């Protein structure tokens, strides 16, 4: 097997990255802190088909991106440069970005708490029997963890928050967790940014559903409409409201003056004779409204003497 020189390795890397930039328009920028080579190999196997994982030094990647951008005239690639910070890699894909992101998240591996490591999460030691003999109680005393001896072994009485998120792991905490066999942290590739056809956005955008998008769009349209109406600036969203408001104003003028038009005539007619509003009621509503009145009339008839009623009417009901 021929061993490549450093210059040849750089050339091969540049060629591969340029080829990927030409072939793919979607890229996930991922953080690779505490990710081992075996774990990375498993991720590559899991994504094989429509995705390619490429790692490398940031300086090499930035240099290649700049040169490729100059050669092709595609300045959109330059949006990748600010994202190449820290221990990061690139996942080129032709698949669905959300699905690829979810697939990457599956390959997380448990890891012990090493001394000096910044805790990514809170670490809580659960209560229960530890299986350790009483000679090991010094570890618990140093960390102020309440314990008791039960059947010749150390038992933790209550759950204890051993390490807080963002704190560095101390030697005592690391030793205790190792003795208890607790691997509190899990590491894998973490998607930090998404590049899609020149646009760069946060991975949280991938979690948005169609309902979320419709809601945000409706909210935006509502704001545009309100602003347009406030400054009397016609827009597609505000136009229907402007026409309705204008119609209301013209109608108000017609009602208050002798000026009229067909629609205003109907309104004036209703205003002159309010009983005509009853015509617009539905048969069901009319029946519901007339039922109490009919019941009240029937009650009045029962209370009123029959003779009085006949005398008032002036004729027999059977005439």
Automatic annotation (TrEMBL):
Subunit text: P0 forms a pentameric complex by interaction with dimers of P1 and P2.
Q: What Gene3D superfamilies does the entry give?
A: 3.30.70.1730, 3.90.105.20
The similarity comment for this entry is:
Belongs to the universal ribosomal protein uL10 family.
According to UniProt, the name of this protein is 60S acidic ribosomal protein P0
Question: Which stretches does UniProt call biased (Low complexity)?
Answer: 284-295
Q: Where is the Large ribosomal subunit protein uL10-like insertion domain?
A: 113-182
* Start and end residues of each stretch annotated as Disordered: 284-319
Organism for this UniProt entry: Acer yangbiense
Gene Ontology biological process terms in this record? cytoplasmic translation; ribosomal large subunit assembly
């Amino acid at each position: 097997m021929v061993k490549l020189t450093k210059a040849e390795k750089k050339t091969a890397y540049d060629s591969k990255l340029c080829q990927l930039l030409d072939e793919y328009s979607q890229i996930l920028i991922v953080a690779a802190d505490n990710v081992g080579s075996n774990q990375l190999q498993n991720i590559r196997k899991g994504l094989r088909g429509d995705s390619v994982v490429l790692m490398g030094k940031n300086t090499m990647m930035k240099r290649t991106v700049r040169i490729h951008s100059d050669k092709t005239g595609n300045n959109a690639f330059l949006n990748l440069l600010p994202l190449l910070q820290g221990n990061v890699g690139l996942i080129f894909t032709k698949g669905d970005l959300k699905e690829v992101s979810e697939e990457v998240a599956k390959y997380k591996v448990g890891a012990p708490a090493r001394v000096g490591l910044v805790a990514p999460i809170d670490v809580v030691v659960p209560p229960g029997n530890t299986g350790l003999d009483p000679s090991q109680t010094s570890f618990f005393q140093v960390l102020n963890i309440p314990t008791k001896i039960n059947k010749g072994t150390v038992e933790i009485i209550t759950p204890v928050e051993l390490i807080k998120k963002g704190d560095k792991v101390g030697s005592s905490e690391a030793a205790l967790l190792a003795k208890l066999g607790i691997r509190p942290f899990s590491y894998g590739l973490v998607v930090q940014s998404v590049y899609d056809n020149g646009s760069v956005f946060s991975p949280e955008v991938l979690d948005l559903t169609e309902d979320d998008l419709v809601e945000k769009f409706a909210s935006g349209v509502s704001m545009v409409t309100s602003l347009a109406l406030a400054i009397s600036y016609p827009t597609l969203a505000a136009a229907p409201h402007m026409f309705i408001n204008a119609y209301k104003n013209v109608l108000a003028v017609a009602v208050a003056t002798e000026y009229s038009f067909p629609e205003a005539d109907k309104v004036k007619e209703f205003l002159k004779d309010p009983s005509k509003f009853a015509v617009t009621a539905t048969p069901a509503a009319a029946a519901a409204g007339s039922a109490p009145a009919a019941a009240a009339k029937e009650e009045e008839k029962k209370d009123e003497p029959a003779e009085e009623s006949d005398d008032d009417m002036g004729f027999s009901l059977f005439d």
